[in-house]
Design goal:
Elements lengths: L13 H54 L49 E5 L4 E2 L3 E2 L6 E8 L13 E5 L4 E5 L12 E19 L2 E14 L2 E9 L1 E11 L8 E4 L5 H5 L4 E12 L10 E6 L9 E6 L3 E9 L11
Antiparallel strand pairs: 1-4, 2-3, 4-7, 5-6, 5-7, 7-8, 8-9, 10-11, 10-12, 12-15, 13-14
């Protein structure tokens, strides 16, 4: 008789299965909690990085343009009509101007100096005759200068140029070829920019969102054309440092509303510094950032202080910087 050895096999008991499921669920919950925490942290880090990067880039664009305001290359004076040797090109349509001798080109027969920098707080629907529907309560700044590198001997485009000698100059349109400036003269590309904030619609994650955007009107091919500089810039303000006693030091700061016509003409006082305030925000509200009251002060004192309060889920950051104008006063730079 053959004896068969039977091996008894046992499975998991119900208690063991319950313990295994509980341990597995506990581990899975820990993993999910860690994942969700990392996801929120990553989103917060990306929002903060977005604010810092967009604010930094917008600030650098403004700083670079403002510090060169009034740079005329080898020409040592402001190019008023009295020193121009030929008629100006046809002005843009519409032209960007405000006040006396503050359009794209110097006005003929006007005694006031040609304004190389000018700012105002947006109040209406058509500012400086060329900016439609800017954000009310934010500043607009206008800057005129030439590019930092002369183009003598280089093929020109249809842009506007500044042909300068030491004592006289002229504005002219590019020919598409090499412009011969003549003896003891140099050729520079002329720059006329107007910066402002305007709300724009963008598609984000399949949804249309309204985003405040830093934009500029720029002189291109003889016309003022609009272009986007940086999205998410919610407000912009400038304070102008004035040297009133010609000692190359700032004696007082004024807002754009406090600046007078003679201040812009830089006759009784010279604008030597500009403080820039930029309030930037994320493009969309953060679900992990519940609505809360946020207050920001964009310079000024007393009734001239600009205070902005928001109560929503957008993340914001206020950036400030001070720029020294290197082409004004006794330290005026010329090549």
């Amino acid at each position: 008789m053959t004896k068969v050895n039977q091996i008894r096999q046992f499975g998991f008991t119900m208690l063991e299965l319950m313990i295994s499921l509980f341990v597995g669920a506990f581990i899975l919950a820990g993993v999910m909690f860690t994942y969700l925490g990392m996801k929120v942290t990553t989103a917060d880090t990306m929002d903060i990085g977005e604010l810092q990067e967009s604010g930094r880039l917008a600030m650098e664009v403004l700083k670079r343009d403002i510090e060169l305001a009034g740079f005329w290359g080898n020409f040592v004076e402001t190019p008023d009509a009295a020193v121009l040797t030929a008629a100006n090109p046809t002005p843009p349509s519409p032209d960007c101007f405000n006040g006396v001798n503050n359009s794209t080109y110097p006005q003929i027969g006007v005694n006031e100096p040609f304004k190389v920098i000018f700012a105002k707080e947006a109040e209406g629907t058509n500012e400086l005759n060329c900016v439609g529907s800017p954000l009310t309560g934010s500043d607009i700044i206008q800057i005129k200068r030439v590019a930092g590198q002369e183009i003598t001997g280089i093929t020109s485009t249809a842009n506007t140029y500044f042909l300068a000698r030491v004592q006289n100059a002229r504005f002219l349109k590019g020919t598409g070829g090499v412009v011969n400036p003549g003896i003891n003269a140099k050729l520079w590309e002329y720059i006329h920019n107007v910066y402002f904030i305007q709300e724009q619609n963008y598609t984000l994650n399949g949804q249309t969102v309204n985003v405040p955007t830093l934009r500029r009107m720029r002189l291109i091919n003889g016309e003022m054309q609009v272009e986007t500089v940086m999205e998410g810039v919610e407000n912009m303000r400038f304070l102008f440092g004035l040297d009133t006693n010609n000692d190359a030091r700032v004696d007082t700061y004024k807002t754009s509303s406090q600046m007078s016509a003679t201040d812009w003409n830089q006759q009784t006082a010279v604008v030597t510094n500009v403080q820039i305030f930029l309030l930037v925000r994320t493009l969309s509200e953060d679900r992990n950032n519940p609505p809360q009251s946020q207050t920001f002060i964009l310079g000024g004192e007393g009734e001239n202080q600009r205070t902005i309060t928001r109560n929503d889920g957008f993340r914001r950051k206020l950036l400030t910087s001070t720029v020294r104008l290197i082409n004004v006063g006794s330290d005026q730079w010329a090549i």
